[in-house]
Design goal:
Distance between the termini: 40 Å
Order of helices and strands: EEEEEEEEEEE
Oligomer: single chain
Number of helices: 0
Structural class: mainly beta
Shape: elongated
Length: 119
């Protein structure tokens, strides 16, 4: 079993900053990717940023230049620094990892953390 524990999030004014973190634990022996998705009310879940093991990173166009993803592989932790936040960033943010517990790689999700950008 793999558990993803998220922290961070909350309420921030437009133009402000927030940081999220997510730690993977359990019987995971290898991680191929870690990242973040988000889902706003009435919308589908969408990619925010993902960092792959070979140091490749993928960002949604809407967050490029404002958000930065990083990983600490020794801690199986992924971070998301969010700057210059706008109301359109309001959503539930989900941590994601593609990990291997011994047989094959599978996708795992955190419980989600709310980010609200509002004045």
């Amino acid at each position: 079993q793999v558990q993803l524990v998220e922290s961070g999030g909350g309420l921030v004014q437009p133009g402000g900053s927030l940081s999220l973190s997510c730690a993977a634990s359990g019987s995971i022996i290898a991680i191929n990717a870690m990242g973040w998705y988000r889902q706003a009310p009435g919308k589908q879940r969408e990619l925010v940023a993902v960092k792959f093991s070979r140091d490749m990173t993928n960002y949604a166009d809407s967050v490029k230049g404002r958000f930065t993803i990083s990983r600490d592989d020794a801690k199986n932790t992924v971070y998301l620094q969010m700057n210059s936040l706008i109301p359109e960033d309001t959503a539930v943010y989900y941590c994601y990892t593609r990990g291997n517990t011994g047989r094959s790689f599978s996708d795992y999700w955190g419980q989600g953390t709310q980010v609200t950008v509002s004045s």
